[in-house]
Every structure is written in C-alpha cells, then in structure tokens.
Amino acid sequence: MENTIRMLQSRFQERGLQGRVVSVRHLQDLRDEIEGHHAQGLLNEEFYKEALSFFLFQDPENLPHAASLIVVAVPQPQTKVSFAYNGNTQTLILPPTYRGFRETTQQVQSLLTEWLAPDGYHVASARLPRKLLAVRSGLAEYGRNNIAYIPGMGSFFQPTVFFSDLPCPQDTWHKSRMMDRCLDCHVCLTKCPTGAITAERFLLRAERCLVFHNERSADHPFPDWIDPTVHHCLVGCMLCQQFCPEDKDFLNWFEGNETFAHEETALLLGGTSLNQLPTLTQEKLKRLDLLDYLGVLPRNLGVFFKTSGQVRFMP
Question: Would you say residue 226 lies in a domain?
C-alpha cells in the first residue's frame, strides 16, 4: 500500500497535479470542525443551511469499506465571458473553481481509477468540504481570506475529493492554520468591499462575502448594503485574490473567452428556461459549467446591464 501511495504521488507530479492521501477516520474531524463552528455561532444560519448542509460524512454506498480520502488539486485558470446587450459589451470573470468543475472531477476520478485498479483498489465520489480537507491533509494552507493556497498554484486550482479502499495507516493531518506570510499582511482585509474579512477573527464572515450572495437562489436579491460597483465576476469574486501576494504569478492566467451575442444575453436576462435556449447557447453554458447557475444569471447580469434582474421564465 505504501508503494501504491508513492506511485500516486509520482503520477500527480507527472501530470502537474498535487495530492494527498489521508485515513478515512478523519471524516469525523471534518464534521467536528464545521459543526463546532456552527455550535459556537460562528456560522450564519442561512449560510450554513445553504452552503454547508449538503456534505455527507459517511462511507459511500458504492464503496462501503472506504479506508482513505484522496484530495487532488488541479491547476485552473480564470475565464473571460463577454456579454453584448443593447450596444454595450461587458467582459466578466469566471473564477478558477467554476469552469469545467464536473469535467475536471470526472477526469481525476478516471485517472485515479486507472492508476489504482492494477493494485485492486477503487475510488468513489465524495460530498465533502474540499477546501477544508485540502488544508487539514497538509496539501494547502489558508490565507487570511479563508481561501486555500498551494505552493506553485496559489489559489488557482480546483480541489477534487474521493473515497478509496486504499489503506492509509499513516498520513499527514494538520490543524487548520493560516499561512505565516499572512501574519504581517492585511491586504485582503483592506480590499474586501463587504467586510467579510475582519481583524476580530480568522473565520470569514461568509454571510457578508460576495461569493455567497451571487451564488444564492434567484429569489434572493442583492442586499442594499452591497455596492453594485464592486461586482466584477459572473459568479464568485476575485477581489481578495487579485491583491494577494501569493497569487501575483497567476493573475494574468486566463484561458478561453466565451461570447454571448445580444439575443443570447437578452434570453439570459429574461430568465429563459434551458430547454428554450438555442442549442449554441446551451453548449456555451455547458462548456462554462454554468447550467446550475442558470437561475441566478438574470440577477447577476442585471447588475451590469442595469435591469431588474428578476427571473421571468419565458414560454
């Protein structure tokens, strides 16, 4: 088994990936950390229910005797997405963790399956806190902004997580910690426009984070206290990363620039259902991995085109 784990590390390096294997017994540690924050009142109730309640801290049905957790980080660029509407074109950012999320996860799972099968081991998908596992496994460290950073990748990566029956009697398990570099750096705190990062505590005030608000369901309009001029991403937010010294080598890393014509943008602003969108538009949204966010696009795009942003599904 140790040879298998060393083989995985070698394969990760060959592919430009980074990963860790830890014992499945740490499932309880992951649960305890999240539930502990919740019990202490450090997590806003709405945020907890909407963003953290879907994790499953148990062995998957298709791999009932899981022995380990495998977390793999895949380098990921930003993507530019342009929308034309009424003679105005807005080019917005899609942060690294959005585009191709499903495809990347499937590709990593296929690789792990290929690599582990000769030794008789298997993998299964996991619904676990990926960023937290990356940090607790020793793969990443937190920034003051609570974003995970990996040497050589910064925060420009997608973490993927899987169960495996590969035994892992010894591993590297760490307490959650902030990077040493952050101790004397407060740039993300000063640049956060919504007060989500504070000096009073390390844990992000997620209920004030722009990411939380522009990922919420469409029946949640943006709060009045969010200045409309701070929006710059289609979903998510890049402000604290754009000013972080750890990301300075990756800020200009963009791949792809999907373009939506006026007619397509009008349909998206109008809340047109997926099956009523042109096939070409559907394909663009699928490439961007935005199908799950179709319902929030009228609100999010509405900020840039000064429309109401209310969903009005067209017949």
Answer: yes
Task: Report if residue 264 sits inside a domain.
Answer: yes
Nearest to 301 by CA among 276, 271, 280, 277: 271
Domain count for the chain:
1
The answer for 68, left when phi > 0, alpha when psi is -120 to 50, beta otherwise, is beta
Side chain identity at 293, as an amino acid letter?
Answer: Y
Residues whose CB is less than 8 angstroms from the CB of residue 27 and which lie 6 or more positions away in sequence, other chains included: 57, 58, 69, 128
Domain span at residue 220 reads 2-305
Instruction: Pull the structure tokens for residue 286.
Output: 């699928």
pTM for the full predicted model: 0.92
- Whether the Cβ atoms of residue 162 and residue 125 lie closer than 8 Å to each other: yes
Instruction: Give the tens place of pLDDT for each residue, 132-176.
Output: 999 999 999 999 999 999 999 999 999 999 999 999 988 889 999
**Stated length of the chain:** 315
As a whole-number percent, the residues of the chain with pLDDT over 90 amount to: 90
How far apart, in whole angstroms, are the C-alpha atoms of residue 196 and residue 237? Answer: 12
Find the distance separating the first CA and the last CA of the chain, reported in whole Å: 57
In-domain check, residue 312? no
Residue 207, domain member (yes or no): yes
